[in-house]
Design brief:
With 974 residues, the protein is an alpha+beta fold. A seven-stranded mixed sheet has the order 12-13-14-18-15-17-16, sandwiched between helices. The chain is globular. Helix content is 41%, strand content 16%. The chain is built from 34 helices and 23 strands.
Length: 974
């Protein structure tokens, strides 16, 4: 078989390092046979016709193998080696919350929990451990989800063999056909389901429920949330849940999807072997009636939700019905999508210019096989939502009245062409998990999956037929805003008297006088960017042994880490790191560092604003992401071989000649202003605002800036902060991917290498602090649901590259801690749905690392959380863990590294800063050796060193009423 993904040579060393441990894992598979020893044969009773493409004229993707077993179960399997050795399995059941009756609300989701616990082939709660032994990480590699219309079980199996796939399909088949549960198991799992319901973000849940009830009134989708109701969940019994299972879990409603690094004939054979005996009970029931948009329902709805910024939603609703997935159907849909995108571009331009809304967008969607709709979402500035709605309607009205210019159409068509062409160019490196998920999505909406080249051919054929014209776009715009019902919904953080009446008026008001004149597109090219200096000269070149990379230093001091490789076809990762990052920020005062992504990036380059830069990048793979690391500010993008040189030019000009458009500053301030009320509305919101601030001992470099600091930002103070940041500090460039070495070096020489030499920052990095041990938790409060709280406990560790081996021991320790906390807090007590433990160790700072455990619990269970966490920590420090527990944690972590190391993004992150600190190269080389050599004694030692009871720091976020009733002292915020 051809190698689909070339990894750095280090990955080969990694595989050699793991050669002794992986077979040992495979030997743990019970009753493993060797299907690969013989060429698999598919029974003639299996119908191998491409069932997905029945009634479609789209060319089937020959890489997919389809089949229908005699019992009605369908499968779709294919070969995929991205990442090498992985096999992605999905089992889709065609039943979700819309298949429940009134007394069964939440049953589809409850059944998902019970099914994943065990069956006749695996003991209760043992499937997780079995897959851990096979290298799968719980939560990311093994998971399940329930929607309105389907239930999907997911498994990404690393280092897969025919034996491990066979065992996994056996387990899954038993779960689908005969999950083992009784009233005892149901009563054990019920608190877990209720914990998931309780821990859902209250404001978002209330908003989603109210919005669905208003826009989809009269249809089951309006009232059938997958989580169910407390009443129905409490009433559920093993008998009633079993009846739901027997009705909907049947082979005719199941599809097995596999994409992975094994011969697809083996997949077909194993699906047949493990699922062919499954028989449905009784007749296959007809699908429920999901209804159609009701025309006699109220046209507006409203909600007062303090935890959500003001949002206006509008829907133009049409009945959903099955459409044969034909070429012409997809081409007409492309015309509709282009029409919508032209409107979205105009809305974004209007928002950027300082209009009445922060953001607005239009989308087309088939919602839960219930509605085909055109949806508008608006976030106004402040609470003037009526004007925002009118202004957005004016943009839409203009689009429905006047055709777009040819330049507008060409621009959006170029974007679509580029995106779809990129899909063709990078198809070879599409992950198997993505292919499996795409198949699930297509099945849910009753459509096919086309290969990227087929999809692109559909677009180019539509262009050849002249389907994309200003007239056709105008006709499409009119069509997508016609429907059986038009409804609107508004959510405000404070009461708005007569909101429904105002909304109805704004929905029908004459907006013709609000239509603004369109700005004609002017030609923009790279010659309009500020000029750079002459190309820089290469001062030195150094090949890095073992990892096939090269370090280049230019005369102006810029350093380049170059890794040319075709492993990810047509992808080039470009990153520029400069300055000191958090280390360069003052620890005694708040700065505008928070505005980098929101305002600095869209503030333009030279005399070009974001509108012109968007024109410059149309149809190309160019972008600009921003971030702050401990030791550097970062610009990054994923580009292409054709575009990365211009990507480097954009980065160089951003550093050398930034623009200072004030409009993005006002927009950023307006956006943050809408979020402050939401922080108070849930424990998660409080943590997102406060946690890093408190964990850094109230260091203002971290945490959400307080509103007065945001309000105080002006264009002058913004420029005063960012201008020296962009202009100073050493620069490191990383170019990883599908490039030619000499060409890439020349491209950097002409861009970053052409900048003037830069002065190093004179700032001495401030120490990163950790709060002192506290006898009683720091208390913060929220205004959300009375049954929601969060508890966390953290221990300080360290930082710096010299301690990287120790940091990897702490990562393994944290995963052991997670598994134990999960078992005790979720499985045994049902007090929390997803408690977790994370270890962090900043490579770019001398300290600041920590081990932190966190769990969402009821307010009366925070003490339980702290007790269990401390008991686990003490036990880990006192007693070495068993070999099985160690391997169940190490195997998934090592497999994660193996899979990730086949992609350039992994090395990009691991080697950040390595041109200035060669120790990071050694740390990258040792990653698998470090993980593989960790012993139970090592974990006990680091637990004893760091998980000390005299060093831990605790915090809890509880409802305000609970804190008041208990007389708790609430800590002051920022």
């Amino acid at each position: 078989m051809p190698i689909l993904f070339r990894a750095p040579r280090l990955s080969l060393l990694v595989a050699v390092t793991l050669g002794l441990s992986i077979p040992a894992i495979a030997q743990n598979v019970p009753n493993a046979k060797n299907p690969a020893a013989v060429v698999p044969t598919i029974r003639p009773e299996v119908d191998r016709s491409p069932w997905l493409f029945k009634g479609s004229d789209i060319t089937p993707d020959a890489n997919w193998h389809f089949g229908t077993l005699p019992n009605g179960l369908r499968y779709a399997v294919r070969k995929n080696g991205v990442p090498p050795g992985q096999v992605s399995i999905r089992v889709r059941i065609d039943a979700g919350s819309l298949y429940e009756d009134d007394a069964e609300q939440g049953y589809a989701h409850f059944m998902e929990h019970l099914v994943f616990r065990g069956s006749q082939y695996v003991a209760d709660n043992e499937a997780k451990r079995t897959w851990q032994r096979l290298g799968a990480t719980f939560g990311s590699d093994t998971n399940a989800q329930t929607s309105f219309t389907q239930t999907v079980f997911k498994l990404d199996l690393p280092a897969a063999t025919p034996e491990s796939v066979d065992e996994s399909l056996k387990i899954l088949s038993g779960m689908m056909e005969a999950p083992s549960f009784d009233d005892k198991v149901v009563n054990s799992e019920r608190p877990v389901v209720e914990a998931e319901q309780r821990e859902a973000p209250g404001p978002q849940v209330r908003y989603g429920d109210a919005m669905r009830a208003a826009l989809f009134a009269g249809q089951p989708f309006a009232v059938r949330s997958p989580i169910g109701t407390t009443k129905t969940l409490e009433a559920a019994t093993a008998g009633s849940l079993r009846a739901f299972h027997d009705k909907w879990y049947r082979p005719e409603r199941a599809v097995v999807i596999i994409s992975g690094d094994i011969d697809p004939l083996i997949f077909e054979s194993l699906v047949d072997k493990n699922f062919s005996s499954w028989k449905g009970k009784g007749a296959n029931p007809a699908d429920p009636d999901f209804g159609t948009p009701a025309t006699k329902q109220p046209i507006t709805g409203s909600l007062v939700e303090p935890g959500i910024p003001t949002v206006v939603s509008m829907g133009v609703l049409r009945p959903w019905h099955f459409n044969a997935d034909l070429v012409i159907f997809n081409q007409k849909r492309l015309v509709d999508l282009l029409a919508v995108q032209i409107i979205n571009r105009r809305l974004e331009s209007r928002a950027r210019s300082g209009g009445s809304f922060i953001s607005a967008g239009v989308s087309l969607d088939d919602v839960a096989r219930s509605v085909n709709g055109t949806f508008v979402t608006i976030q106004p500035i402040g609470n003037n939502w009526e004007q925002a709605l009118k202004d957005v309607r004016a943009v839409i009205a203009d689009a429905m009245t006047n055709p777009p210019s040819q330049a507008e159409l060409d621009r959006e068509l170029a974007e679509y062409d580029s995106a779809m062409k990129n899909g063709v160019d990078t198809a070879r490196v599409e992950a198997g998990s993505a292919q499996a998920d795409n198949m699930v999505s297509a099945l849910d909406i009753r459509e096919t999956v086309a290969a990227p080249d087929v999809s692109y051919a559909i677009l180019t054929d539509a262009r050849a037929k002249g389907m994309f014209t200003p007239a056709s776009i105008l006709a499409s715009t009119k069509r997508v805003f016609e429907g059986d019902a038009t409804r609107a919904f508004v959510s405000t953080p404070t009461p708005d008297t007569g909101a429904g009446t105002k909304l109805a008026a704004a929905l029908t008001a004459d907006v013709s006088k609000l239509v603004t004149k369109r700005t004609a597109l002017t030609a923009v090219d790279f010659s309009k960017l500020p000029p750079l200096g002459p190309p820089g000269k290469v001062a030195s070149r150094e090949m890095l042994t073992d990892i096939e990379m090269e370090k280049i230093t230019f005369a102006n001091g810029v350093r380049l880490m170059l890794y040319p490789n075709p492993g990810e076809t047509n992808r080039v990762y470009v990153r520029v790191r400069w300055g000191g990052g958090y280390n360069a920020l003052p620890s005694t005062r708040r700065t505008p560092a928070w505005s980098g992504d929101l305002a600095l990036i869209p503030s333009g380059i030279g005399n070009l604003g974001q509108e012109q830069i968007d024109q410059l990048t149309t149809g190309r793979r160019l972008g600009m992401d921003f971030g702050i690391d401990e030791d550097a500010f970062v610009l990054g993008a994923v580009s292409s071989p054709a575009d990365y040189q211009d990507q480097l030019r954009l980065f160089a000009d951003k550093l050398a000649s930034p623009g200072w458009d004030p409009a993005p500053i006002a927009r950023a301030k307006a956006l943050l202003a809408t979020s402050y009320a939401g922080f108070e509305s849930s424990p998660d919101g409080v943590l997102s605002r406060d946690l890093e601030y408190f964990l850094h001992d109230r260091d203002p470099r971290w945490g959400t800036p307080p509103k007065p600091a945001v309000d105080a930002l002006t264009p002058a103070t913004f420029k005063a902060f960012w201008q020296p940041v962009l202009a100073t500090g050493p620069i490191e460039v990383q170019v990883f991917g599908d490039v030619k070495a000499e060409e890439a070096i020349a491209a950097v020489a002409k861009t970053l290498g052409a900048l003037k030499p830069r002065t190093a920052s004179a700032v001495t990095p401030a120490a990163i602090r950790f709060p002192a041990h506290n006898a009683n938790p720091v208390v913060r409060t929220h205004t959300g649901q009375e049954n929601q709280a969060v508890a966390l406990i953290a221990w300080p560790t360290g930082g710096g590259v010299e301690g990287v081996a120790e940091s990897r021991k702490l990562e393994v320790l944290a995963q052991v801690f997670t598994d134990r906390l999960f078992d005790r807090l979720r499985t045994e007590s049902g007090a929390s749905y997803s408690p977790s433990v994370q270890a962090s160790w900043p490579i770019g700072a001398a300290n600041g690392g920590r081990v932190m455990a966190v769990g969402q619990v009821p307010p009366d269970k925070t003490a339980l959380f702290f007790r269990l966490a401390r008991e686990i920590a003490a036990d880990l420090a006192k007693n070495p863990i068993g070999d099985d527990e160690l391997q169940r944690v190490k195997a998934p972590m090592i497999q994660y590294v193996l899979r990730s190391s086949t992609g350039n993004g992994f090395w990009l992150n691991l080697l950040a800063g390595a041109t200035y600190d060669s120790r990071r190269i050694d740390a990258a080389k040792s990653i698998v050796v470090d993980y593989n050599s960790i012993t139970a004694v090592d974990l006990q030692a680091v637990a004893a060193k760091y998980l000390r009871p005299d060093k831990d720091w605790t915090m809890e976020v509880v409802p305000k009423s609970v804190a008041a009733k208990a007389g708790l002292v609430v800590a002051a915020g920022q």
